[in-house]
Amino acid sequence: MDLQQGEREGYIYIEIVGNVFIYIDESYQEEKVTIHLKNGQEYSLKVNENKDRLIVVK
């Protein structure tokens, strides 16, 4: 298991068996988070819509 911390320490994510779990802290100030997955794809989220909750991407 490899937990990744966001560039500005305002979000974390982990990839487990084809799922990505993302948490964005409520104090994170950027407008968007872009995560670079192990398979080379990118996944982006709007911060204001996803703060302070756990997001699961399958």
Architecture overview:
- This protein has one helix and six strands.
- It is mainly β.
- The chain has a four-stranded antiparallel beta sheet, with no helix packed on it. Strands 4-5 form a two-stranded antiparallel sheet.
- The longest helix is centred in the C-terminal third of the chain and has 4 residues.
- It starts with a strand and ends with a strand.
- The mean pLDDT is 88.
- Indicate the low-confidence ranges by residue numbers: none
Query: How many structural domains does the protein architecture include?
Result: 1
Which outline best applies? globular
The succession of helices and strands, N to C, reads EEEEEHE
Structural class: mainly beta
- The DSSP helix count reads 1
Estimated helix fraction:
under 10%
Q: Which strand order do you get reading across the main beta sheet?
A: 1-2-3-6
Summarize the structure in short.
This protein has 58 residues and is mainly beta. It has one helix and six strands.
